[in-house]
Amino acid sequence: MKKLRNHLLLCCLFFCMTLGISMSVSAAKVYVPDRAVKFGNLICYCLGVDGGGPLYSYDPASRSTQLILDERCHQLTASGSYLYFRVDSYHGSDASSRYIYRIKPDGTKAKRLASGTDPVVIGKYIYYIALTKTPLYGTYVDGEILGVYRMKLNGTGKKLIYASTELKHLYRYGNKKLAFTENNEVYFSMTTAGRKVTYFDPSSVSANTNNMVEGHDLEGRGFSKICYNAKGIYYTFDKHDDTLFRYSKGVEKRITAFDGMVIRKVIDLDQYLVVIAEYLWQTPDHTSVPFARMYLMKRNGRKRVTLTEVADISGGW
């Protein structure tokens, strides 16, 4: 096994050298826009079938919920006075059209900024994976991937910084860099100018408390049962799919259990945790239908509330 691992590393190094890409195994904090984000005192969230759902805000103090935008929203980021996110429109069974939006948390000043996905906000710019649009039966659907683009927060000044038709996901890497994956699932980092493209091993994030995943589990790729926060504390459900554990300085503590459910995702939002769990509902004719439920609770597992629930998630959420 050790020889095989060394052989794979050498192959990866040769691949990177062939492309003129430097190699490093160090990893900084990685942040991935997800289905929930903290905005001031509000918790903004979305959950739906096939990649997105209506965008809501929840006020823990008043226990009130407000609809922000009734679209298929995903990949939330809060910056300044706006929420930035992706909106999916579906045409037929599989033709999609994805756009980058921004909106105030009270639902005002909604604006479509660009055709693309994976919005990442760093400073005064939004970085995203740009897509072309193709006409189809009187509308437009996603076409080719162009690469990583940069634009101002109002959607103007669009500029290509890294050309690639193989891009899959884009993240913020530290405070001033970007990270991305391509179809081969290899992770790279680069500057916000699209330079100094560097390979890194994402497994080092979960192995070193100095290298943390902020508020996200990298969508199941290597971190499906681990969620780090900025203090080196992490949450996991690898022992039991229905029980959440907290680890701090090597000490394990059981937080809470979700009886009859399977935990799928944990998102760390400062003093709160958002947990998405699945369960099977039995219909009168004894058919099992998968449901997903999103919870909000304190870090200690108390004051749990249900934010939303999605029925029949057999197609994914």
Helix/strand layout:
Elements: H1 2-18, E1 22-23, E2 30-31, E3 36-39, E4 42-46, E5 53-59, E6 64-79, E7 82-91, E8 95-103, E9 111-122, E10 125-136, E11 139-152, E12 159-163, E13 167-173, E14 177-182, E15 187-191, E16 198-199, H2 203-207, E17 213-214, E18 226-228, E19 234-236, E20 243-248, E21 251-257, E22 262-269, E23 272-282, E24 288-298, E25 305-310
Protein described:
This protein has two helices and 25 strands. The chain is globular. Helix content is 7%, strand content 55%. The longest helix has 17 residues, at 2-18. It is mainly β. The model is unreliable at 1-27 and 206-223 (pLDDT under 50). The strands form four sheets. It has a ten-stranded antiparallel β-sheet with strand order 3-4-5-6-7-8-9-10-11-12, with no helix packed on it. The chain has a seven-stranded mixed β-sheet with strand order 1-16-15-14-13-2-17, with helices on one face. A four-stranded antiparallel β-sheet has the order 18-19-20-21, with no helix packed on it.
